[in-house]
């Protein structure tokens, strides 16, 4: 039987043409399903930059402009982008207080706040308490009264103490204890921490 007379016969050229069309069509379909640009990304942005959003805030008295991902926390930009590593990440669950900073003068856990939620606000970290090379009175009180052991929780303890004093310049011992209750010390240096906070209040 002649080749052209074979039922269902297909030439090699037609097979390759049909196969190529199927591959191209399948690729386009996959790109559409995954949201990928079919003709390439013309924005010039890298993959890591595409989902970032602008953020402007004041940190330790300085205006800061950043590009951040929506899921980035405040402690992450402080430590990783601004290199203010005095603020510690310990539990990362809002339980220990080591990451405490001041947001418009109020103590917050920076691991529990999205960076974008701090837009337009003023953040003060442990580094921002100093004036040049001079320690803040609260920082000095913690040194004078041995308000630390390993020192890892100390920045959070100091920032919490400062928040108490910003709210009330002459707090009672009970008010200081309550204000520091959200800051844990794994070394159990609480008596010295309390002495330091009381001494700072007296100054």
What's this entry about, in short?
With 203 residues, the protein is of the alpha+beta class. The chain has helices at 12-33, 74-81, 137-144, 154-167, 173-180, 190-202, and strands spanning 53-59, 62-68, 100-103, 106-109, 122-124.
Quick tags:
alpha+beta, 2 domains, five-stranded mixed sheet, 5 strands, elongated, Ubiquitin-like (UB roll), 6 helices, disordered N terminus, 203 residues, single chain
Reconstruct the topology from this structure.
Layout: H1 12-33, E1 53-59, E2 62-68, H2 74-81, E3 100-103, E4 106-109, E5 122-124, H3 137-144, H4 154-167, H5 173-180, H6 190-202
Parallel strand pairs: 1-5
Antiparallel strand pairs: 1-2, 3-4, 3-5
Cα(first) to Cα(last) distance is 109 Å
Looking at the structure, what is the overall shape? elongated
**SSE order:** HEEHEEEHHHH
What is the CATH architecture annotation of the largest domain?
Answer: Roll
């Amino acid at each position: 039987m002649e080749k052209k007379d074979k039922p269902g016969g297909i030439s090699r050229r037609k097979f390759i043409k049909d196969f190529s069309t199927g591959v191209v069509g399948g690729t386009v379909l996959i790109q559409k399903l995954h949201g990928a640009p079919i003709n390439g990304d013309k924005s010039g942005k890298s993959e890591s930059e595409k989902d970032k959003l602008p953020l402007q805030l004041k940190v330790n008295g300085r205006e800061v402009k950043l590009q951040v991902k929506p899921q980035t926390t405040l402690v992450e930009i402080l430590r990783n982008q601004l290199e203010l590593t005095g603020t510690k990440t310990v539990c990362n669950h809002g339980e220990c207080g080591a990451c405490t900073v001041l947001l418009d003068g109020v103590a917050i856990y920076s691991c529990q706040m999205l960076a974008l939620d701090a837009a337009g606000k003023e953040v003060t970290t442990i580094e921002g308490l100093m004036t040049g090379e001079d320690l803040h009175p609260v920082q000095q009180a913690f040194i004078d009264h041995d308000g630390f052991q390993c020192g890892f929780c100390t920045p959070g303890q100091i920032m919490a103490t400062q928040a108490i004093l910003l709210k009330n310049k002459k707090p009672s011992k009970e008010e200081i204890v309550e204000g520091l209750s959200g800051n844990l010390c794994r070394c159990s240096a609480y008596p010295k921490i309390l002495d330091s906070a009381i001494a700072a209040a007296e100054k």
